[in-house]
Design a protein that fits this description.
By secondary structure, the protein is mainly beta. It has 4 helices and 30 strands. 7% of the residues lie in helices and 39% in strands.
Length: 493
Amino acid sequence: MFRCSPAAMLLAFAALPFACGPNSGPPDGAGDAALDAAADAADAADVMTRPSSPDPWAGRLAIPRFTDRNPDPRIIEVDLEARVAEWEISAGRTVRAYTYNGTVPGPMLEGNVGDTVIVHFTNRLPDPTTIHWHGMRVPHAADGTHHTQMPVMPGATYDYRFALADAGLFWYHPHLMTDSQVERGLYAPIVVRGAGEPVVDREGVLMLDDVRLGMDGQIAPIVMTDDLPGREGSILLTNGHSDGAIPIRAGATQRWRIVNASNARYFNLSLAGHRFLVLGADMGFYPQPREVDNYLLVPGERVDILVRGTGMPGNDVALQSLPYNRGYGGGSTTPLDVIHVQYTMDAAIPALAPPTSFPAIMPLAVAGVMQRDVRFGMMLTGTVTLFTINGQAAPNVPVITARVNQTEVWDIINATPGDHPFHLHGFSYQVISRAGMPESAADLIWRDTINIPRGQTIRIAWRPDNRPGMWMYHCHILEHAEHGMLGEVDVQP
């Protein structure tokens, strides 16, 4: 995650033990077993065939698709190239960007639980890079960090192979010089479908981001003043553009699957005159969907909501980000328009009945489990602000040792004056309590990213499965992770 020269990175990476080298697939044993188990589970569930177009948006909101070159319907084999290209953020305004296959966002990876994914990745950027599959239970060799692979140097290739183990909304992005490379455009969504998907009139993915331009009209470099608040831009983007619009017909029910791909911006989403029906977040559905007036979506997090077309034909309403004080001087004090929702002139259609429940999630047994503290802090070293975990900044954060099939209970303690989104690689967790208040059964869900408000403690429980190795956890304000708020958990057999 740390910024350094390519030569320095090579020296640092060469000194580390690796689970694999360039162009290798998942390790024998655990990786293959995970692939087989996921495929067996999918066959047993008899999931639907792969949808041809889960994202209905056209024009400015369209997200490109991969071309699957494997004839096997259960294998998704694609080519992915990171390269510099022109990015049109609005009509007539283009910037030089880092892209996947020439677009921002990059192509959407989509499939069903149990499908095998093979990504042939080529780096055509001037910088080294990797790919992290955010939120996904991938083999250790596919996680895209310095513990799992050498950086993919300019002109080099690397093959990622994993199974789609869980239904949900995920995304992929680099995990090397992450703040700079994500800010320049390297991100894209992943949709994995399972049994029991809700019936809607239309469905689409919305990737939210922001960008800051310099005096030359290009993406401004990240500077020291970005470190404390995290990088926020003045131009809000949806699916890579600032001038798109969501069409909706009166009476229709739309499913919006939303990713916060920004470096640091919190989107406090609200649609005037409408209520969101929140189906789930990160890795699946809540047992009971709930109606809300607004939803706070933090960097790295995803939300799955239904929007019902209660407006009149011809209406225009803005999806806004309402003010939210996350500390460090970040955020906005006034509502900001994210994207407009435009009602067509078609006559209203009858509303679909919304889902009222999904399968209950069994809570992890935590009685007798030793609890660990993971304390977020900060310190000033000279003129540099470092963000710390348990009193140390990465790479000096003490490693936590966990065991396969043994439940972990962590208190994530935020002792700083600002909020931090906590992200765990490779595994998902359940929230047990927030600020000492137990989480209700109706709120139980599998997560990998959650906001830790300043001055509060959130207790989580997770149970590593048989994928041993060194896995990261960190603040997903990317500048905070780059400046020390990143730790590692060593999952041992």
